[in-house]
Amino acid sequence: MPEGSIRPTDPRVLRQLRAARGPLLAVTGSAILAGVLVIAQAWAVTGLVLAALDRDAVATWAAVVLGLLALRGLTGAVTDLAAARAASAVATDLRGRAARA
User: Fold this and answer.
1) pTM attached to this predicted model
2) Is 58:51 a contact under the CB 8 Å cutoff?
3) Cα 7 to the center of its chain, rounded Å
4) 93, 21 in Cβ contact below 8 A?
5) Do the Cβ atoms of 34 and 65 come closer than 8 Å?
6) What is the mean pLDDT for each group of 10 consecutive residues in the chain (101 residues)?
7) Residue in 86, 89, 72 with CA at minimum distance from that of residue 31
8) Going by C-beta distance under 8 Å and a sequence separation of 6 or more, which residues neighbour residue 86?
9) How many other C-beta atoms can be found within 10 angstroms of the C-beta atom of residue 68?
10) How far is CA 64 from CA 34, 42, 74, in A?
11) Mapping DSSP to helix (H, G, I), strand (E, B) and coil, where does residue 42 land?
12) Cβ 34 vs Cβ 68: under 8 Å
């Protein structure tokens, strides 16, 4: 890294994120859940393909795939909302510090 550049793990940067600890935990949690849902959806799509080949329980597997797709969409929305709240909290905190300085 060039001299004078700041890394994301720099303690000065991490101090600025304290105001957004809760929303950032929500972002992290929902990202982990999204990863688990991607794996579950891959498993369900495999089940759907096998069911279609065997002509057995296609509707059930299709419902599972659609349900997981809906959960992934909801998880994405939660991630976006939490990220926006984290950004807002950090910006508000930084504006307050700048005004006091």
Assistant:
1) 0.76
2) yes
3) 22
4) no
5) no
6) 69 77 92 96 96 92 97 96 92 87 85
7) 72
8) 17, 20, 23, 24, 27
9) 19
10) 16, 11, 15
11) helix
12) no
